[in-house]
Amino acid sequence: MLSKKYLLFKNNSLNPKRIILVVLLLFNSFNLNADSFKFNNYNNHGLVGLVNMPTARHFDESIFGATLYGGSPDTRLTFTSSPFEWLEASLYYTRIKDRPYCEREFDDACRQSYKDKGFNFKVRLRKEDKFPAVSLGINDLGGTGLYSSEYIVASYGINNLDLHFGLGWGALNGSKYSFENPLIKLSNKFASRSILQPGDTGKFDAESFFSGKKVSPFFGFSYLINEKTLLKFEHDSTRASGSELNYYGSTEIGYERSKYDFSFGIDYHLNKNFSIGLFHERGNTTSIKFVYKQDAISSNKYATYRSANTKVDEDKYSRLRKNLRNNGIGVNKIVEGSSAIGLELTQFVHPNIQVIEEIIKSATIDSGINKEVKTNIKIADLQAYEDYDLDFEKQSQTIFLRKKVRSYNSNTGLSFRPFLASREEFFKGAILIENNFEYILADNLFFSSNLKYSLADNFDDLRFPPEDTFPAQVRSDVKDYLRNFDNGILIGRAQLDGYQSLSKNDHFMFSVGIFEEMFTGYGFEYLHSKNDSSHAYGVEIFEVHKRDYDLRFDLLDYNQTTAHFNYYFRNYGSIPFDLKASFGKYLAGDFGSTIEISRSYRNGVKFGVFVTLTDVSSEEFGEGSFDKGIFFNIPIFSNLVSYSWRPLTKDPGQKLIRKNTLHDLLIKFKPIN
């Protein structure tokens, strides 16, 4: 029988000193890496981790997922993405039951359960080698501060076992083994931690990061029992101060006081994408978790070449046209010179120039063409990519010239429209039949429309009005539009677009009609963009009118001229992301700037974040302080789906939603780093 001095448990508690000693010994005994789908899953907070505690593990870049957690008193939905292998970012919605939404006792809106939302991120400081991987993270950026916490954590893998040890501040500083914050030795500023009040929601309180008189250790392990089952055990340092603190204005979530200081459970993988978790937390709470995770790159492969059915006696250029058309690339013109052929192509399908070049190379070989191929690409008659000039064309023989004909395409299918974290209910949505129609009047002139019909929705009880509508109500009345979704066929868009390349590097477009669900009008955009440059810039100016809530042709009594100067930077290695910066006048008449940072992949997958600051003060803006959010383009059932999310729908910093911009069209023909 083991002596008591070797026991890891004592009086229903983990013995941290002995756990740390064992972990340190194991750290120096093996050298195996546990950064994988097998060893890892999102924890209850949507972070790669154990039960509630984070780990230093990260998924590969382009992986994204969603976590639905049901516990007490909170229910939480978290969306997580890994734009880089060293960065994990997530946003969450949570509902805390038995906690009023606001403090006005006789206000109907205050009788509902409390809602919260915020951002989390985790950065890898070092990869695992002979020593552990180390990561640093911050939770609840821009939220109410209820989940506000920071941590540094180390992880080390040993065959099927993965070990973790970290320090937690804020909401992770609830261990009875807490000790003095070591950062106080660097500065006394780390000794005090400010507390966000209800009116401070949305503020970034950087002075509180890694601060407080105490810091708590957390540690644990995961063990892969088999290909489907992952066992998790942790010393849980979550701050659990008692359910009696679950009231509006409290700085505590209201978790029941811990009976034990550990949590444990299992994750069971139904397949490579879906898993279910069942956990017992701190001796008094049983929770369940559902996880979906996906590798955006492997699940949405680059385009693969497909040969067309051609006749044996067809000439090589006819076979080339058919092979390209069979792969989503149209041929406008073919010219042949003494040493090369020139192709003028047009396409909207493929996400970047590398994929197009690979298809052209395969189609050329398949068609029996041995000469060098030079390519010019047009999209909506814009000169998007130029590999040969007019002199080459004059010295060549025209082999093929496409006849200009009018054509159209129409696509009808089911779609889903979510509306998350409203004050009325955590989740709202509609199942729609949508028709997207496009008529090509000329190579540079297009009419497009979007019609929708709601098969089923639960928008009828969206009754609570927005609390802040300064300086003008341009987006915060979204509920008035949604309530009319069951009112027959609705017009989402009906617009005419014209395009023109003024020169090789200067492009112009105009648009008129119904641009989106909330605005109609007219305007133009200009863009200066060089094929061989990572920089581009331009301007856009639109005169818009607010649409009536019936989503047909009537208008409300509001119009605005919105204008922006835009600068774009494309990542070619010097900076590991793409950037867009805009400055100008927004839909509500406020002036300011927007910064967008994003990461794109060769198959069209994209993750990004944005922040907008205008001349509307944080007090005038109200809850949230300023506009921010995320956007992504990810594969859902093999199709790329675009979505933009804000924690709050406010009026300042809002821009016109456009079907196409010049940069969105032309950027497809710049390489992806």
Mean pLDDT rating: 86
Instruction: Return the CATH topology of the largest domain.
Output: Porin
**What is the CATH homologous superfamily assignment of the largest domain?**
monomeric porin ompg
How many individual helices?
8
Number of domains: 3
Number of strands: 33
Q: Could you say which structural class the secondary elements and strand pairing correspond to?
A: mainly beta
What does it look like?
The chain has three domains: 12-299, Porin, CATH 2.40.160; 316-401, GMP Synthetase, Chain A, domain 3 (2-Layer Sandwich), CATH 3.30.300; 407-669, no CATH class. It contains eight helices and 33 strands. Strands 21-22-23-24-25-26-27-28-29-30-31-32-33 form a 13-stranded antiparallel sheet. It has a twelve-stranded antiparallel beta barrel with strand order 3-4-5-6-7-8-9-11-12-13-14-15. The N and C termini lie far apart (60 Å). 40% of the residues are buried.
